[in-house]
């Protein structure tokens, strides 16, 4: 059996000539007719079930440049392919491009997207293996990559594909439960050693992103050592433990490779960092504790990383009704910032759902979440004001 890695095929090419059969609930063809997306023996399309969260997830992944995983084509003849693994993802893409569903809670169709987003989706390249072999070989292989109920993880599949000295050494270091360092690493890395999650992280770090892992493994497949991988990984780990003296559970699973690349040139005072972390980690107004570390690394400026708690609904409603009463009396807008303007909105009474709560004294300057510190602004003005 033979497998060739293809990394240049775009979403647009794969979805060319896409059809969706509503009666059979199947995506039919792609690659201008050369690709059969759901051959008879495959499952039906499932990603539209349960509110369609999974098909929306595929599109959002593409827009955010998250990898959507490996796809396998079976080469049935010179110009004919079948999807062995990936039919759900490809069908999601085809359905979206063809207007069969929308994202952003059903409000955003493909046609309505800005041109650059459309292009981004269409031009995204997928990682595809073209597999060629006899039917028995393919079936046997398909069975091994999809052990019933426990599909192989992407990294397990990669290890199989790039098997050789590099994978052997890499597994000895990063997939070995006997390695005494695993416990220390697991403060920062989430997942299961046995399912290759630690190895995947190490590879993603050294190759600067999950989508580069395949290229990296293919280049190093026959290397007899893993020095570069190991050195880079240890640099990242050492940097984290030097900058952050305490280990917090919220540190686990952060994109440390990216943070290292972005901030390792800065100098930090670990004692000061530690006291900042302690202060923020106990602050109930911070909803996203995992954002604290990048917030501090970046100089405590980007509050959006922390998702600071806003006022609860009852406070917002009372404030809205008070502001609106006064505004009606004065015959001016219920958004205090709109009243200062000179356009049509000067007298506009916004509906409750057209407004957002704002901290009069910014949270970052010690302002509370008390009703006295709450004002409602129209969405535009709140976004302009921006700071917390
Ligand atoms: Zn306004």
Q: For the largest beta sheet, what order do the strands appear in spatially? A: 1-8-6-7-5-4
**Could you state the order of secondary-structure elements as H and E?**
EHEEEEHEEHHEHHHHHHHHHHHEEH
Which hetero compounds are present in the coordinates?
A: zinc ion
- What's the alpha carbon Rg, rounded to whole Å? 26 Å
Sheet having the most strands: 6 strands, mixed
What portion of residues is helical? 25-40%
Structural class: alpha+beta
Global shape: flat
Oligomer: single chain
Count all strands and give the number: 10
Task: Please give the alpha-carbon distance between the first and last residues.
Answer: 59 Å
What does this structure look like?
It is a single chain. A hairpin with a 4-residue loop joins strand 4 (29-30) and strand 5. The chain has helices at residues 11-14, 53-63, 87-97, 115-123, 135-145, 154-161, 165-174, 182-185, 197-206, 213-220, 227-243, 256-263, 270-281, 292-297, 313-330, 379-385; strands at residues 2-6, 20-21, 26-27, 29-30, 35-36, 71-77, 80-85, 128-132, 355-359, 374-378. The model has no long low-confidence stretch (mean pLDDT 89). It is of the alpha+beta class and 388 residues long. The chain contains 16 helices and ten strands. Zinc ion is lined by residues 335, 337-338, 377-378, 380-381. Zinc ion (ZN) binds next to strand 10 and helix 16.
Give a short summary of the structure.
Helix content is 40%, strand content 11%. By secondary structure, the protein is α+β, with helices and mostly antiparallel strands.
């Amino acid at each position: 059996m033979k497998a060739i890695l293809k990394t240049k095929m775009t979403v647009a090419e794969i979805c060319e000539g896409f059809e969706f059969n509503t009666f059979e609930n199947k995506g039919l063809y792609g690659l201008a007719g050369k690709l059969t997306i759901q051959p008879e023996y495959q499952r039906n399309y499932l990603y539209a079930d349960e509110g369609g969260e999974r098909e929306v997830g595929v599109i959002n992944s593409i827009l955010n440049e998250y990898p959507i995983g490996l796809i396998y084509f079976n080469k049935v003849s010179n110009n004919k392919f079948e999807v062995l693994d990936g039919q759900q993802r490809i069908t999601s893409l085809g359905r979206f491009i063809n207007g069969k569903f929308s994202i952003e809670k059903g409000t955003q169709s493909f046609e309505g997207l800005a041109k650059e987003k459309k292009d981004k989706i269409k031009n995204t390249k997928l990682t595809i293996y073209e597999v060629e072999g006899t039917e028995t070989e393919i079936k046997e292989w398909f069975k091994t990559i999809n052990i019933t109920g426990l599909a192989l993880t992407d990294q397990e599949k990669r290890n199989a594909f790039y098997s050789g000295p590099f994978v052997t050494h890499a597994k000895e270091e990063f997939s070995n439960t006997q390695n005494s360092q695993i416990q220390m690493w697991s403060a920062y890395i989430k997942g299961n050693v046995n399912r290759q999650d630690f190895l995947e992280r190490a590879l993603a770090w050294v190759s600067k992103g999950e989508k580069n892992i395949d290229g990296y493994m293919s280049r190093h497949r026959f290397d007899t050592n893993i020095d570069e991988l190991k050195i880079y990984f240890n640099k990242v780990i050492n940097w984290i433990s030097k900058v952050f003296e305490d280990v917090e559970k919220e540190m686990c699973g952060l994109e440390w490779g990216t943070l290292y690349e972005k901030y390792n040139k800065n100098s930090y005072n670990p004692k000061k960092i530690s006291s900042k972390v302690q202060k923020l980690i106990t602050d109930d107004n911070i909803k996203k504790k995992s954002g604290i570390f990048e917030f501090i690394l970046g100089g405590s400026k980007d509050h959006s990383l922390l998702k600071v708690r806003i006022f609860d609904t009852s406070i917002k409603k009372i404030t809205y009704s008070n502001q609106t009463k006064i505004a009606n009396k004065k015959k001016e807008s219920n958004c205090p910032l709109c009243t200062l303007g000179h356009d049509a909105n000067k007298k506009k009474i916004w509906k409750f759902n057209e407004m957002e709560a704002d901290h009069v004294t910014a949270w970052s300057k010690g302002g509370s979440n008390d009703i006295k510190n709450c004002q409602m602004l129209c969405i535009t003005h709140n976004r302009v004001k921006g700071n917390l």
